[in-house]
Design brief:
The protein is α+β, with helices and mostly antiparallel strands. Helix content is 21%, strand content 44%. The chain has helices at residues 3-18, 66-73, and strands at residues 20-25, 34-41, 44-47, 54-58, 61-65, 84-87, 90-99, 104-111. The longest helix is centred in the N-terminal third of the chain and has 16 residues, at 3-18.
């Protein structure tokens, strides 16, 4: 098993344990909304490891496997600022997508309603 396969399997398992169901709606109207599982976090922040100072603060985020989107929309699909996510009865707009190097993406969200 390759490193990429092992990382994806681990991410898939973690999401299945901590999942929050949501509906993802791309801003590109050529794509239909899909149901997706991810890890919802009401608060997220980045800290400078050298100083311990808070450098960024976001409210909230939703962690996903990017593969869940590309399996539905195709390998050329790109997350766009303005895509929508409905989770726990609230609607959010994607303000940033932070990709890790192992197939995970953290969607930084802004509440719309």
């Amino acid at each position: 098993m390759s490193w990429e396969d092992l990382a994806d399997r681990t991410l898939k398992t973690a999401i299945s344990v901590f999942k929050t169901p949501a509906t993802y709606t791309p801003s590109d109207t050529d794509f239909d909304p899909i149901d997706i599982d991810g890890v919802f976090d009401r608060n997220s922040q980045a800290v400078d490891l050298n100083t311990g100072a808070k450098v960024d603060s976001y409210n909230p985020s939703f962690g996903i496997r990017f593969k869940d989107l590309t399996e539905e929309y195709g390998d050329d699909f790109e997350i766009q600022q303005g895509d929508r996510l409905a989770v726990k009865g609230k609607n959010y707009r994607v303000i940033e997508a932070i990709e890790d190097t192992e197939g995970g993406v953290k969607l930084m969200l802004s509440l719309t309603s």
